[in-house]
Amino acid sequence: MTERNSSTGSLFTQRAEALTDDRFDEAGFLTDEETADSRDDGDQLDREERAALRRVRGLSTELEDITEVEYRQLRLERVVLASVWSEGTLEDAENSMRELAALAETAGSEVLDGLIQRRSHPDNATYLGKGKAQELRDIVIAEGADTVICDTELAPSQRRALEDVVKVKVIDRTALILDIFAQHAKSKEGKAQVELAQMQYLLPRLRGWGESMSRQAGGQVGGAGQGMGSRGPGETKIELDRRRINTRMAKLRREIKEMKTVRDTKRGSRQAREIPSVAIAGYTNAGKSSLLNRLTGAGVLVQNQLFATLDPTVRRAETPDGREYTLADTVGFVRQLPTQLVEAFRSTLEEVGDADLLLHVVDGSHPDPEGQISAVRSVLADVDAADVKEVIVVNKADIADPEVVDRILRHEKHAIAVSAHTGQGMEALRQLIADEIPRPDILVDVLVPYSRGDLVSRVHDEADLLTEVHVADGTRITARAKADLAADLERYAVR
């Protein structure tokens, strides 16, 4: 069974539903009317930079060139999507295809058409099966496409066999996500992590190109004057490439480990001061950065794209009663997040595992918000963050179906509905954070002399002040304080 124009065609008549939001234009940017109300998001100069390079229509895709696809010059990526529906409902398959379309658009491609095939399992040879692969070839020719994207990770043999049939470049979901990450990485650590993930993906997929790959020992053919140890084919080019990739991967792992030391030092400084930490995690495009901006005014990039934010951001915030805590924005998750990325970004995701509270942001307007929740929780389990206290934050409540929002609030033990765009529910969220983060737990009763106004100031900033009375000898204070402050106040304790 193949679903195409009847159902899949409708998936691409408008922009993928994973990105549907009337407040954004076709490029994924806020309209002028909305921008005026988004002062928390800052100037958003990063968005302008991303939009500076546009693809040009009308250039040849060189489909007549049927030589090795790796060497074809691709100037404009016009893509056709392909998916095998082997489990779940048709709605699940269509949601996955919409997400794939959104990923392709985020990578800068133009989605032309899609094909969903009903099979018990993907074909071991060409993923779609011989007949459907040929049908996909016909679609590629009819649409003038230059790339096929498959909605799962392909084995190297499947990719090669499918390319031999369709005669254009074939990539899988994993390669597409890695490409998006490579586009959006800006920090040194982010670039190193993405490069490591790409090389882990590339290593088993290296290709050979015939006899030119054979490298004889000493640069000469089998033992011509070179003596023992020089006979035979020598090291092939693919073996040389594999060795170089392994060397580069080892170097990247060392660099990431060194960067982790710096981050651990910064985190250790915050922990020494006993500053509570709150991590924001969730599905990509759920509104995590918008939420961070609304809570802290950080001005982090906001764009209606999948994986718009890649590099983590940590900002200072305060509870309504004045207690200090940190908010960390993390990279978004997605279904079938490549294992290479989870491993490469493990050091970054440790910020989530060490948090005192996790704000799990869910897009309430998404067709399958429960699927988002389960996908995120599976990744959190992989990075040992499943035990962190979790609050489900249902974002985009202003455009979400109220019945869907109510259903999530009923099913989840700790949940709240907000809109980072309009500010709906933000005060309640701030109060919820204040209630859930750790509070100072050491009760102190002290008489601080007027000469130690610095300690009184610290009590106001760092402790929960219960009572404060000014007497002749100083300030009588009862409060709940952290260990370091309690130690400094010990000498002034009322006996």
Based on the model shown, name its key terms.
495 residues; alpha/beta; Rossmann fold
Describe this structure in words.
This protein has helices at 8-11, 32-35, 45-51, 90-106, 130-143, 156-166, 173-184, 188-202, 237-272, 288-296, 339-344, 346-353, 369-382, 402-411, 426-436, 453-462, 483-489, and strands spanning 2-3, 78-85, 110-118, 147-150, 169-172, 214-215, 235-236, 277-282, 313-318, 324-329, 357-363, 390-395, 415-417, 442-448, 464-471, 474-481. By secondary structure, the protein is an alpha/beta fold. It folds into 3 domains: 2-181, GTPase HflX, N-terminal domain (Rossmann fold, 3-Layer(aba) Sandwich); 274-436, Rossmann fold (3-Layer(aba) Sandwich); 442-492, no CATH class. The strands form 4 sheets. It has a 6-stranded mixed sheet, with helices on both faces. Mean pLDDT is 76; it is low at 13-24, 26-37, 58-75 and 218-224.
